[in-house]
């Protein structure tokens, strides 16, 4: 317990905000106008800031002062990251803080009667990745499609389908190019959260990233997060295989593939199925419609013709946008359940953070935008948002 300062100060909140704002203790101490030793005592719980210092701290990191006295919700279960490199530790900490804040936003809206529905995901209880076979991945992907009522054709809007299945989905610019997304299970919400990077305006890549995270949620829920590079790589490979099987179901997709497909043939499949040529080549190899040499040759031609990081038509498909959190806030305001200006105070985070996490237009919570997706919209949710 803190010996001095504001009663109830939650040092866990300070850890969150340091990660979310990418600040060191020394940097934050200078910004707040206290010594690094003082801030260190706040972080360890030895002391708590006095009222004036707390207000300066809150102003500097752009949250409500009383946010620091609110007990943080239970941490989301440790997510898996695409990059496990030590150099990316700060990036992982930032994204974990952001996904924790997304949990806070979703939980705060539930206090007003918002419901996110039941969760529809296949149950798998693997405890070691070595237990998971290629056949098991195909079966899990097929079962997931069945639970989501997607049939065996191309998926029109994967983000909408994921939210229908009870997943809390966030898409925001993170400034972290090396980590495209992460997912975790929330005990507070009793459902998973997926955070996707919006830094690249590529709808094909975004769909695959989401399917990849669904793969982690289904296959790896009961597996401890590995520290060994080889095991981490295996988990990533399995999530990739799931994404390919989920987006490109074996029977119907294979029926559309020519015997010796060219890159131009694959571009047509890309536009139809909403999956990149690179991912299609990998799927063809998995289905043994290409042998290893054939897949390698096509990937090499792709790289020579288009480069390693882009393909023709990448801009043709806009990234799919999450709707649930945005629509929940919009409806709460529209139905006069909570005033627009009261939303940040209820949640405790800055308007800009809530807008980013909920996919709201910039300035919406400050009365500077009027772009709601409520009852007058042509976007119709597949489930009611209120209990």
UniProtKB/TrEMBL annotation:
Family membership noted in the UniProt record: Belongs to the short-chain fatty acyl-CoA assimilation regulator (ScfR) family.
Classification via Pfam families: HTH_3, Peptidase_M78
Protein name from the UniProt record: ImmA/IrrE family metallo-endopeptidase
Lineage: superkingdom: Bacteria
UniProt xrefs under SUPFAM superfamilies: lambda repressor-like DNA-binding domains
UniProt-listed Gene3D superfamilies: 1.10.10.2910, lambda repressor-like DNA-binding domains
HTH cro/C1-type domain ranges (all copies): 14-68
